[in-house]
């Protein structure tokens, strides 16, 4: 056990609710909880088995603060790796505050942000990767980010690192043997074995690098930049995707001066759509700044939705096709989706063409 003091904090979100959970962790957790808890059956909390739940009252001297359920985790058999008590009380903010203030008077201190997980890490209950996954799991807002966080918290990433470490140690030991006995007529591994081992290590490293890139995109949402000339329907498209009037729509070109972002979950994957200022030559200083931001957002995006107006495309198709090629050449690693908008304005013949 790293820490000698005992901490307390809400384990549930702050504010009123049906119930709240107050967590106590530290070497005095059981004795402090026992000093304020009165079981309905008269049991001594400290003498009960680990992982058991007990009904009773939190007492401030002779005054009952609340009827609660108390769960005890003895020894290292807890999330933090130290004695832990969880008090499930009614969710009144007043009740929460009264119980926490009572526990502070009995010898607890308020836990710092993330301190329960920090103690779990320092006590060897979680490694660093799993500790980070706890935060990712709490903040996950779609199926894909939830699955990645769960896999990491269960040790998926840690297992990959452990395998890589084993391969590197194997490689280092073979190299060391070869160097130590270089003058002897002894061969511990042929060159093909070395080559295979290096290739395996490189494969694992590349896979880990790729998984980080994919995981980071899923965690933060896949950024999709909606770009094109002014007044081609970028803001209308954003509003249609979000099913709300998020961006101002106007017939006046150059209405969007700044980028507008919002998120949407599609089939369990988060997408961050970015409406940008229309790209054109302009002397307007504010609009020019917006256009500069458009190019910055294209740089940051994974996917680019490039909009064209159908009538302009019909009249100057070659020009726009050349423009598409320029965008593809400038951003070869990005997924480019070309969208021709306002097709309802075309005649049937033009639409077929």
Description of the molecule:
- With 353 residues, the chain is an alpha/beta fold.
- It folds into 3 domains: 7-126, Probable tRNA modification gtpase trme, domain 1 (Gyrase A, domain 2); 143-215; 221-352, P-loop containing nucleotide triphosphate hydrolases (Rossmann fold).
- It is 44% helix and 22% strand.
- The protein contains 12 helices and 12 strands.
- The strands form 2 sheets. A 7-stranded mixed beta sheet has the order 3-4-5-6-2-1-7.
- The chain starts with 6 loop residues before the first strand and ends with a helix.
- The model is unreliable at 250-257 (pLDDT under 50).
Rg calculated over all Cα atoms: 30 Å
CATH homologous superfamily placement of the largest domain: P-loop containing nucleotide triphosphate hydrolases
Task: Find the count of extended strands (DSSP E, 2+ residues).
Answer: 12
Tell me the overall shape.
Answer: flat
Tally of DSSP helical segments: 12
The CATH architecture classification of the largest domain is: 3-Layer(aba) Sandwich
Assigned CATH class of the largest domain: Alpha Beta
With strands numbered from the N-terminus, the spatial order across the biggest sheet is 3-4-5-6-2-1-7
In CATH, the topology of the largest domain is named: Rossmann fold
């Amino acid at each position: 056990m790293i820490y000698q003091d005992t901490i307390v904090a809400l384990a549930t979100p702050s504010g009123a609710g049906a119930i709240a959970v107050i967590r106590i962790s530290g070497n005095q957790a059981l004795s402090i909880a026992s000093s304020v808890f009165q079981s309905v059956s008269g049991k001594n909390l400290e003498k009960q088995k680990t992982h058991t739940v007990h009904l009773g009252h939190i007492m401030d001297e002779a005054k009952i603060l609340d009827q609660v359920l108390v769960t005890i985790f003895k020894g290292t058999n807890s999330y933090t790796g130290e004695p832990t008590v969880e008090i499930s009380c009614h969710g009144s903010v007043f009740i929460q505050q009264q119980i926490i203030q009572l526990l502070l008077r009995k010898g607890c201190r308020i836990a710092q942000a993330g301190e329960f997980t920090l103690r779990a890490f320092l006590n060897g209950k979680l490694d660093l990767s799993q500790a980070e996954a706890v935060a990712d799991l709490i903040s996950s807002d779609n199926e894909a980010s939830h699955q990645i966080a769960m896999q990491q918290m269960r040790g998926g990433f840690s297992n990959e690192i452990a395998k890589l470490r084993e391969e590197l140690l194997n490689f280092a030991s073979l190299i060391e043997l070869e160097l130590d006995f270089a003058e002897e007529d002894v061969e511990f591994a042929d060159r093909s074995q070395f080559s295979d081992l290096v290739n395996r290590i490189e494969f694992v490293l590349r896979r880990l690098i790729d998984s980080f890139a994919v995981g980071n995109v899923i965690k933060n949402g896949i950024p999709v930049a909606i770009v094109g000339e002014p007044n081609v329907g970028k803001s209308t498209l954003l509003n249609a995707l979000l099913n709300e009037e998020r961006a101002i729509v106007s017939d006046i070109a150059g209405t969007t001066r700044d980028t507008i972002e919002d998120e949407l979950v599609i089939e369990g994957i988060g997408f961050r759509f970015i409406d940008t200022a229309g790209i054109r030559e302009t002397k307007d200083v504010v609009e020019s700044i917006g256009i500069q931001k458009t190019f910055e957002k294209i740089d940051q995006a994974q996917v680019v939705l490039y909009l064209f107006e159908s009538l302009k495309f019909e009249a100057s198709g070659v020009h726009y096709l050349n423009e598409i090629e320029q965008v593809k050449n400038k951003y070869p690693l990005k997924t480019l989706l070309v969208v021709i908008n306002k097709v309802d304005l075309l005649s049937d013949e033009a639409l077929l063409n």
